[in-house]
Each structure stands twice: as structure tokens, then as C-alpha cells.
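Figure S7 source data.
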Amino acid sequence: ITVVSRSRDLSQEMVKKLIHQSQEVKTQSYCPYSKFRVGAAVMTLDNCVFTGCNVENACYTLGLCAERNAISKAVSEGYRSFKAIAIASDLCDQFISPCGGCRQFMREFGSNWDVYLSKPDGSYQKRTVDELLPLSFGPEDLSMNKVFS
Amino acid sequence: ITVVSRSRDLSQEMVKKLIHQSQEVKTQSYCPYSKFRVGAAVMTLDNCVFTGCNVENACYTLGLCAERNAISKAVSEGYRSFKAIAIASDLCDQFISPCGGCRQFMREFGSNWDVYLSKPDGSYQKRTVDELLPLSFGPEDLSMNKVFS
Amino acid sequence: ITVVSRSRDLSQEMVKKLIHQSQEVKTQSYCPYSKFRVGAAVMTLDNCVFTGCNVENACYTLGLCAERNAISKAVSEGYRSFKAIAIASDLCDQFISPCGGCRQFMREFGSNWDVYLSKPDGSYQKRTVDELLPLSFGPEDLSMNKVFS
Amino acid sequence: ITVVSRSRDLSQEMVKKLIHQSQEVKTQSYCPYSKFRVGAAVMTLDNCVFTGCNVENACYTLGLCAERNAISKAVSEGYRSFKAIAIASDLCDQFISPCGGCRQFMREFGSNWDVYLSKPDGSYQKRTVDELLPLSFGPEDLSMNKVFS
Ligand SMILES: [Zn+2]
Ligand SMILES: [Zn+2]
Ligand SMILES: [Zn+2]
Ligand SMILES: [Zn+2]
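C-alpha cells for the predicted zinc ion complex:
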């Protein structure tokens, strides 16, 4: 209804393009261990797009997901407000969904923005960050009243 | 309805005790950076309880949450099936909720078990892992059909 | 030379036993993705031992290494000072060495304690945390003088 | 001595510039929790530079270091071979050193490249990845001979 909320809505064409960009960057995936390629493309409030792929590590726990890669890139260029992120994988029959770590990473920058879970054929499901991480723990919680009992 | 599903339900007394155990271990929290103490107590299918606290690190990203601590402990003792986990913090006015990383860690061991989000006064909310991590990415996804386009 | 530093030295028998404990807990490893089993056993200043294995996750980055598992367990039981940690894997020809993340996790609790890198046959190499993580970033660094230019 | 190793050496001017770039991106740091700003600039074999800052999270463990941010960015653009990385912080009296997690992340892409630890005044220390992570665990280890005892 307001200008801001309206601008958050992506046109069909924009969604299609964003998903395409997440598919493109997927080809850069460094995943010698899982062989599971993932790409992500995040759009800032003023329609800039940053893309990322997963970057695995011999110590599995130290790898990085595509979604966090894309968002970190955007942050390093000065962006902290996002409209949407699209995610792509090679799974034919499944809309690729972000891991809990990435959901938390997204939520740091607000819970009211959109996540496009896609398939290789370009079909998708849309969810908000809040829908993917209900009852989330966020920045505000760290400074709320505490009891030391 | 089945024996297994019935056994998953904790009595009021068991819930109360599990939350108490999460509060007890909270006092061991190593959190010099956030000063945000968290405790967790996980109950296995055969009612064993393992507890964990958060363990922070000067490189913030390398710390460990209380929930993952408790579950890892249980795994290292041979348990991989859980009924419930209780979480405690010092927040007076907020039921402490697990971060996305911990939700994903829980989900590795099934999405149909219970998470008790508590307050210092012992009051709580109950959610399933699935409710906290809807549309989750899990072990099955890694082996599903892939298209290499 | 001092009582404390002398007590830090493990007898041959103690080393052998600590390595054995790391091998034992290795059998609990949850590693469906890497099939790479790791166990660790950490000894506190007063000779208590805590053991841990690696706990992997479908989202690889959210797994936990054996070393961090063992140390977190000890912390959750009130220990923050350690003498030594032993690490075991299934590699025949290689002394298993901790990842950088685990080295940083160890270093949080001091850099002057011992890491035993072992082989399945029980042979080992000894290194200090400091040798494995030279020029380390640690707790003190966070509070040093800063310039805001 | 060989062409490759010679090309790995940066001129004084290149070092100075790389450090400057790490200082520039430091200003984008998202660090509401630690207030500890870090920047990093990584140079590929063909002299492209990618920069990153730290990106913290309310769940501390899910944040990202500057070094991993810079390298992930480069990977997502198709680069996997690096000459050098420079790191900058606000510490006046200390050459900022990478955490163990970042050392492991660097090492995934080789251990024989350079890390410039800098101070705000532009002075620096040079170390190789191997010097910062001796006896490292790396990609090769995952596929070495195993004993299942
Ligand atoms: Zn993820
Ligand atoms: Zn957590
Ligand atoms: Zn490790
Ligand atoms: Zn780091």
C-alpha cells in the first residue's frame, strides 16, 4: 500500500530474471565434496543484484552457502536492505530451500522480504523470511531485559 | 496413536524438569562477548538427558550454541533420536528461540520432535522442529534427482 | 619448572590412554556425508577427560568437528583449562590434524597446551596450540586500542 | 625462480594498494555486536582484486569474516587461484591476523600464497598460508587411505 511496500513487489519479469541470475552463478559453485551446486541472487531495495554460489571446504563446517555468499557480497558494497533473494540448485523435483543458517543470515537484515525457491525449469515458490524462520531470534533479542537469577 | 508417538509426549513434570535442567547448565555458559547466557537440555527417545551451554569465541563465528552443544554431546554418546529439547536464557519477557543454525542441526535428527522455548520463570511455548523450520532442507535432499543443464 | 607447568606434562601412559579414548569415541561419529570418522578426547587441568566425535549436517557448514564437540562438553561441565587434546581418525598414513576452526576454538582457552595428532596404530605427533596457530587472533585482541580513521 | 612463482610476488606498490583496498572495504563492515571492523582484499593470479568485510549476526556463530567474504566473492566470479590477501582492522598496535576458520578457508585454495597482516598506518607483516596453518588438514586428506578397525 505504501510506496516502500509496493516497491518490494517484483514484476514477473524481474522474478524470472532474478532466478535466471541465481542459475547462472550456480555454475561457479565450488562443491567438490557434495557435488551439490547452489546459486543465489539477492536484490537490494534499489534493484541492484548480487550473486553468490556455495564454496565448500575440506573441513565441511567451514564452507559457505550460496545465499550467505550473495548477501555478504551486497553488504560489502554497502547494502543492508533487501527485497528478495532467489535460490537455484540442480534438484529436478524439489524447490530448493535455504538451510537454517542462511535463513538466520537473511533475517539479520529484516524478516519481511521475499525468498524465491526455484527449480531448474524456472518454476518457483515464494516465501517471506519470516515464514521460513517463524518466532525468529534476532538483533533486538540481544538487548532485551534480562534476569540474572 | 502408536506406542512410539505416545512415548514422545512428555508429562508436565518431565517438561518442568527438562526446562530446569536447561536453566541449570545455563550457568556454565562461556559468553564473555555477548554476555548472553543460554542453556539447553535434550531428551533422547529412552529419556536420557544431555545438557549444553553456549561457548563463544573471540572469532565470533566459531562459537557454539547451547542447543548444538547438547545434541552433539548426546550424539557422541550414541544417541540420534530425540523427543524434545528445552532452551533457557536470561530474557525475562521473551521465550528464547533457537537460531536458524540450531534449527537445522535439530532437523538432521528428524523434524517431528519438540522444542520448548522457555522463560526464566519456567513458563514455555512448545513447537515442533518442523514448525520452526518449515520447508526444510534435509538429508534426503542431497540424494534426490539432479539435472545438470 | 613450576607446579602448574609440570602437571601439564602427561606420562606416556596417560598419552596412550587419551589417544585410546579419542579412538573409542570415533566410533560414535555421525558422518553420513564425508564418511570421515573423527574422535577427540580433551583432558582438563585436573585430569578429567571429555570426548567428542564429528556430527555432520545435510547443510555441511552446520556440522561440528570432534575437537569442538569434546571441548564444548567440558565447558558445559564447568571446565575452561586444558592440558591436552588427542585426535583420532581412520587415516592410516597421516597424523590427523585439526582444522583451522578447531585450532581457534582450542586457542580460546589458551595457546600453551598440547595437541596429540594420532594414527590408528596409536603413534602420534605432539604440537602446542600455539604451534598449530601461530600469530593467533585471540580474546585479548578484541579489547586492544583502536584507531577510527 | 619459475615464471609462476615470480608472478606471485607483488611489487611494493601492489602491496600498498592491496592493503589500501582492504582498508577501504573495512568501512562497509557490519559489526553491531563486536564493533570490530575488518576488511580484506584478495588478489587472483591474474591480478583481479575482490574485497570483503565482516558481516555479523545476532546469532554470533552465523556471522562471516572479511577474509571469507572476499574469497567467496572471487570464487563466485570464477576464480580459485590466489596470490595474496591483505587484511585490515582498526587495531593500532597489532598486525591483524586471520582467525583459524579463515586460514582453513584460504588453505582450500592452496597453502603457498601470501597473507598481509596490516595496521591502520599501512605497515604490515607477510606470512604464507602454510606458515599460518602448519600441518594443515586439506582436500587431499579426505581421500587418503583409511583403516576401518
Ligand atoms: Zn545455507
Ligand atoms: Zn543457535
Ligand atoms: Zn575442526
Ligand atoms: Zn576469520
